[in-house]
Write a structure and sequence with these properties.
alpha/beta; 29% helix; 4 strands; 9% strand
């Protein structure tokens, strides 16, 4: 039995000012997976740069070779599931299959998910049902 260690890398470093080096260092140290937060902002970092998780992970995929890359956590409340799936398929391709998706509500108990807040509101146009959304790559 082997122990696999993971780490969290905050998406606060500009890529050419230490961001790339931080992801490469995680790989050099032997971490199995490095996660980054997929939040809109984070407490004390709200006044500085807070980069998008999927673009950051895509950049990390090009800077590393073995390190698994993951989100901690991605919320379906803030992203359309079809575009999120396409972005993840692209990231998985660029990384050579090294993506780990952490997915969750990312809301407090007092904040209902967007879909619950919209329920009851009449919307024009056509909405895809979950059964009409299929992943074509076997994920």
């Amino acid at each position: 039995m082997s122990l696999r260690l993971s780490t969290v890398i905050l998406p606060v470093d500009r890529w050419h000012e230490g961001g790339r080096a931080r992801w490469q260092r995680a790989e050099q140290l032997g971490f199995h997976t490095a996660y980054t937060y997929d939040h809109l902002s984070w407490r004390t970092f709200r006044d500085g740069p807070w980069f998008g998780a999927l673009p950051t992970l895509t950049a990390a995929a090009t800077a590393t070779e073995r390190l698994r890359l993951g989100t901690l956590v991605t919320s379906p409340n803030f992203r359309h599931p079809v575009t999120l799936a396409k972005e993840l398929i692209s990231l998985d391709d660029v990384s050579g299959g090294r993506v780990t998706l952490g997915i969750g509500a990312a809301a407090t108990a007092s904040t209902p998910p967007r879909s619950a807040r919209r329920r009851g509101r009449r919307r024009s146009g056509r909405t895809a049902s979950p059964s009409s959304c299929r992943c074509s790559t076997g994920c």
